[in-house]
Amino acid sequence: MAEHRADKKDGWQRYDWTLIELDYVCSIPSKGLRKIAKKYGCNIKTVARHSKKDNWYQKRVQYLNDLRRELLIHIRIRETEPIMLEIINEDRITWGLEPLDDIGDGWRKILREEVEKLY
C-alpha cells in the first residue's frame, strides 16, 4: 500500500489520492481542502483539482447524510426496544408464558427494518 506521500522521483511527487479523498470525505466539515493539502504536503490547487474531478464535496455530503440517518435509526431503536419488549411481554403473560428479558435478534431485526422505513 502506498504511503500518503512518496519521495520525489524525477521531479514528480506521488500521493495516495484514495487516502486523501477518504480523509476529506470522512472528516468533519470544518476540515477543508487547505487543511487536507497541508496535512499531506500537497499543493492546494492540485488537491482542489482532484476534489472537483472526483466530486469529493458531494461524496462528503452523502457520507454525512448517511451517518446522520444511521445515528437517528440507532437512537430510535434504543428508544423503541424497551416499548416493544413491554408489548411482547404483555402478550406472553396473557398467553400464560414467562416474560422475556430481551427481545432477541429476530424481533430486533424486524424493529430495525421498521425504523429504517421512517428514515
Describe the structure.
With 119 residues, the protein is an all-alpha fold. It has helices at 17-25, 33-40, 44-53, 56-94, 104-118. The radius of gyration is 24 Å and the shape is rod-shaped.
> For the residues shown, what is the average pLDDT?
89
The string of secondary-structure elements, in order, is HHHHH
Largest sheet: none
Tell me which oligomeric state these chains represent: single chain
Q: Name the poorly predicted regions.
A: 1-6
Tally of domains: 2
Shape assignment: rod-shaped
Provide the structure class. mainly alpha
Number of strands: 0
Q: Number of helical segments?
A: 5
Radius of gyration in whole Å, from Cα?
Answer: 24 Å
End-to-end gap: 37 Å
Give a short synopsis of this structure.
This protein has 119 residues and is mostly helical. The chain has helices at 17-25, 33-40, 44-53, 56-94, 104-118. The protein is built from five helices and no strands.
List keywords for this structure.
119 residues; mainly alpha; 2 domains; 5 helices
List the helices and strands and how they pair.
Layout: H1 17-25, H2 33-40, H3 44-53, H4 56-94, H5 104-118
Helix pairs in contact: 2-3, 4-5
